[in-house]
Protein: Cytochrome c oxidase assembly factor 5
Organism: Linnemannia schmuckeri
Amino acid sequence: MPSSCKEIRIELAECILKSDCMLKDGLSAKECLHSDNEYRIPAECTAIKRSFFECKRGMLDMRNRFRGNKS
């Protein structure tokens, strides 16, 4: 995975691990990220999740593919 998305992925993982969804509710990270449980994660994690999605989408966009993601 390119380094441009790697940092965001790590940040998202840390945010989910610290959320009440995992700590209090005992759900897995995958279950917390599922759309049915989106209300259980903080808004900060939701914003990071959106940034990660945009980064991954930018890797597939042919217009940006050769120029790289905007940092």
Q: What stands out?
A: The mean pLDDT is 84. The longest helix spans residues 43-60. The radius of gyration is 14 Å.
